[in-house]
Amino acid sequence: MASLHSTHGTTHKPESITLSELRSEFSHHDPTIARLNNGSFGCCPSSIISAQQRYQLLFLRQPDYFYYNTLKPSILKSRRIIQELINADHVDEVSIVDNVTTAAAIVLQHYTWSFFSSSFQPGDAAIILHHSYSAVKKAVQAYISRAGGHVIEVPIPFPVKSDDEIILEFQNALQMAKLNGRKIRLALIDHITSMPSVIIPVKELVKMCREEGVDRIFVDGAQAIGHVEIDVKDIGADFYTSNLHKWLFCPPSAAFLYCKMSDELSNMHHLVISHEYGNGLAMESGWVGTRDYSAQLVLPEVMEFVRRFEGGIEGIMSRNHEKVMEMADMLSEAWGTELGAPSEMCSSMVMVGMPACLGIKSGEDALKLRTHLRECFGVEVHMYYRAPIEREVDPVTGYARISHQVYNTVEDYHRFRDAVNKLVKDGLTCSLLPN
Ligand SMILES: Cc1ncc(COP(=O)(O)O)c(C=O)c1O
Questions:
Q1: What class, spelled out in words, does domain 62-302 have in CATH?
Q2: Of 194, 228, 246, 257, which is best to mutate to test ligand 1, by the most ligand atoms within 8 angstroms of its C-beta?
Q3: Aminotransferase class V domain: which residues (predicted)?
């Protein structure tokens, strides 16, 4: 990820954030909750919420002036910041939309039209990961399967030991498609899968798709910006999207959609057609009717915020990773379990094995345990159920997805450790928890 340069508003170095300022930035968080699930909804510091409110008031103060004079240049400023952060060649390649769900629908709907215009044949395929995000998988079903396309799901081993295991599965799926005479029109690859959470060797998979003649490649990096490095030129996909509200401190909801410059780009449209129809996806996305655009406008303030941390956003990312690994090791040691992936495949989220004696036997059990931890211990953590493989001895079937963001303290993880230790000591199993 590119570091912060002069396009990000001011060039002065802001004062480093103090511990009490950091606490105050997140003082709106519920103090009774140990928040270990940044991956679902992200977080937004109070200085950014204030900036958002300033934009909202600017609009309400003189809406006509705001719409005709302030909105477009302000969105352009945010797009330029994103362009630099992701190393895109041109600002027209960057659109800002509500969220990754919307970005995915824009790309997938575009391909639905290719089936209707007969440039694609029924049975042409899209390839996705089995662990792709469930809402995005549903969009694939709605836009690709319904249009007559075939969907190939690549199984991803979990727990996983190395990138090679994923690369091999993907290679096998491409070869199988070839043997079956399938034309693969679109590959949809996650950069960081949500559940179970693992960094996918996205650059290698994109390269493999290119070598095998896959038409277009779309990377779902919903969890990625502010979390891992993104260099869209280096990754080499045609489309890349990421939420700005998960790990980059924007308020909900904002995401970018990068579309590599091509003739095709002029045929891509926002799902909501409005005044800018036909003026390019970036322009179309900047005016989708009357609505609140403030979440898209705070990028300059977000850049100011991250510059208050040592090493800026890169410093935040590397410290989050180091800290979450340390906490994951502490938890797995306390519970006598393993991590779901090696450190180099983890970002600021890590899958930690739960004690087998808790009897996590289904997705429903995982949800019940998650609810119990929230309601009885004040711990918010995402929980994953993994079905045991045939003949597996003493399988770990439950994994907690813990995260680390700048607001976390060691006490958050100690609370989680102690809660689970108490459940084990009390002999609780998921079958005893209410539905
Ligand atoms: C990999 C992945 N894709 C897509 C999404 C959807 O993001 P949103 O709900 O903000 O559209 C998420 C959200 O967690 C995700 O993790």
A1: alpha beta
A2: 194
A3: 77-415
